[in-house]
Amino acid sequence: MNQSRLRGSQRVPAAVVDRTLRACTKALRVSKPATVSIAFVSPAEMKKLNKAWRGKDGITDVLSFGDIKKGDDGEILISYEQAARQAKQLGHSTRDEIMFLLVHGVLHLYGYDHMKPADAKKMFPLQTRILTSLGIDPRI
User: Fold this and answer.
1) Amino acid 137: pLDDT
2) What is the mean pLDDT of residues 39-49?
3) Bridge-partner residues for 36, per DSSP?
4) The pLDDT of residue 140
5) 14 CB contacts (<8 Å, ≥6 apart)?
6) Rounded-to-10 torsion of CA 84, 88, 92, 94
7) What would the DSSP string read from start to end of 77-90?
8) Helix 94-109 crosses helix 117-133 at what angle (to 10 degrees)?
9) What SS3 class is residue 135?
């Protein structure tokens, strides 16, 4: 996990990330180890990547790359600044928002999506279950 952009209290303890990833693997019933890198990127970099990979000209909070079910390594990129803005707007902690984004990103790595209503009906209940198991309000 690369947190070099973050300072002091912005950094997420490795134990919190580990607990979140373990909750994901338990809910997904993952039996085989996978490699997932996590990095915090600048708003400018996130906007650039969002345009390049999704064709959307604006900042996003999280991007996931790879398909672990197909044997790829996974990569999750998070914009701390966007997460902090969203947390403030929604009235919860930035750390909870980051854990939400981490869970969301992991589900994408395992093939879950939410662009179509039928896919969202599969992804969001699982996301809710994982967040609830972590003590995070799933209505984030």
Assistant:
1) 82
2) 95
3) 74
4) 59
5) 1
6) 10
7) EE-HHHHHHHHHHH
8) 130
9) coil
Q: Give SS3 for 36.
A: strand
If we measure between CA atoms, which residue out of 109, 99, 129 comes closest to residue 18?
Answer: 99
CA distance 52 to 28: 29
Only one residue has tokens 């999506």, namely 113
Q: According to the model, what pLDDT value does residue 80 have?
A: 95
Residue holding tokens 């912005």?
A: 10
Sequence-separated (6 or more) residues with CB below 8 Å from residue 93: 87
Q: Which two tokens stand for residue 72?
A: 């790829």
**pLDDT tens-digit profile of 58-113?**
999 999 999 998 889 999 999 999 999 999 998 999 999 999 999 999 999 999 99
**In Å, what is the CA distance from 45 to each residue of 1, 14, 59, 100?**
17, 24, 9, 21
CA 112 to chain CA mean position, Å = 12
- Cβ-proximal residues to 4 (8 Å cutoff; 6+ apart), any chain: 40
Strand partners, 39: 2, 77
Q: Write down all domains in the chain, each with its CATH number in brackets.
A: 8-133 (3.40.390.30)
